[in-house]
């Protein structure tokens, strides 16, 4: 029992020290919502506001906005991406199943997962997205 307790204590201590070391050299990125620079993406009303990285060249983090009434065709993205709904409500269809997602909802689309989306209600949808590579849209 004492041996197991020591292993757990050492593991926790290592995790804490590693976390402190990992954050001690980091820099902060702070972007107020009023400072976001929205750029149209070629589909009427669809815009992105990058906060880190370059969406066209590699991994990035950005806000994505869908306008009221938008319904996307089935499409995929080359890069795996992870998203949180910031505002608005939309329906996401993957694998033949549709889910209605509102603020605070999370989803990930990996492995070029085909999907479609439809904005629900009278409010645009804003997502925060982390993409593992260049952002593209591949219509199926």
Short summary:
This protein is α+β, with helices and mostly antiparallel strands. It has one domain: Sandwich (Jelly Rolls), CATH 2.60.120.10. The protein contains one helix and eleven strands, in the order H-E-E-E-E-E-E-E-E-E-E-E.
Task: Walk me through the structure.
The chain has about 140 residues and is an alpha+beta fold. The protein has one domain: Jelly Rolls. About 15% of the residues lie in helices and about 40% in strands. It has one helix and eleven strands. It has a six-stranded antiparallel beta sheet, with no helix packed on it. β1 and β2 form a beta hairpin. The longest helix has 23 residues. The protein is globular, with a radius of gyration of 19 Å. The N and C termini lie far apart (about 55 Å).
* Number of distinct helices: 1
So, CATH architecture? Sandwich
Helix content: 10-25%
Query: What is the topology, as strand order, of the major beta sheet?
Result: 1-2-3-10-5-8
Q: How far apart lie the N and C ends?
A: 57 Å
- State the low-pLDDT regions, or none: 1-24
CATH superfamily: Jelly Rolls
Q: Which structural category do the helix and sheet elements fall into?
A: alpha+beta
Q: What's the order of the H and E elements?
A: HEEEEEEEEEEE
Number of domains: 1
Q: How many beta strands in the DSSP annotation?
A: 11
Largest sheet: 6 strands, antiparallel
| Overall average residue pLDDT | 86
Q: What amount of the residues lies in strands? A: 35-45%
Coarse shape:
globular
- Please report the first level of CATH classification, the CATH class: Mainly Beta
Rounded to an integer, what's the Rg over CA atoms?
A: 19 Å
In CATH terms, what is the fold-level topology? Answer: Jelly Rolls
């Amino acid at each position: 029992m004492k041996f197991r307790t020591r292993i757990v204590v050492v593991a926790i201590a290592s995790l804490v020290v590693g976390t402190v070391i990992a954050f001690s050299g980091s820099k902060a990125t702070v972007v107020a919502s009023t400072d976001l620079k929205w750029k149209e993406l070629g589909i009427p009303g669809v815009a992105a506001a990058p906060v880190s990285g370059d969406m066209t060249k590699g991994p990035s983090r950005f806000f994505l906005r869908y306008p009221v009434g938008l319904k996307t065709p089935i499409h995929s993205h080359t890069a795996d991406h992870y998203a949180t709904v910031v505002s608005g409500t939309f329906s996401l269809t993957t694998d033949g199943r549709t889910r209605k997602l509102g603020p605070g909802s999370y989803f990930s689309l990996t492995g070029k997962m085909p999907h479609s989306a439809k904005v629900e209600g009278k409010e645009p949808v804003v997502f925060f997205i982390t993409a593992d590579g260049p952002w593209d849209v591949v219509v199926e």
